Amino acid sequence: MSQTNQILVANIGTTSFKFRLFEMPSERLLARGGVERIGSPLSPWKIQVEGAEAVSGEDACPDHAAAFALAEKHLIGKALGSFNELAAFGFKPVGARNISGTQVLGEPVLEAMEALYSLFPAHNPPYVAGVRACHKLYPHVPCIGTFETAFYDNVPLHNRRFPVPLEWEEKYGIRRYGFHGASHRYITQRSAELVGTTKMRLISCHMGGSSSIAAVKDGIAVDSSWGMTPQSGLPQNNRVGDFDVFAFSYLARECGLGLDKTVSELSKNAGLKGMSGLPTGDIRDLHEARLKGNQNAQVALDVFVGAVRKYLGQFLVELDGADVLAFTGGIGENDDYIRENVCANLDFCGLKLDNSINTGLRGKEAKISAKDSKIQVWVIPTNEELIIARFAWAKLNYKI
Question: Domain range holding 342?
Answer without folding.
Answer: 196-240+269-384
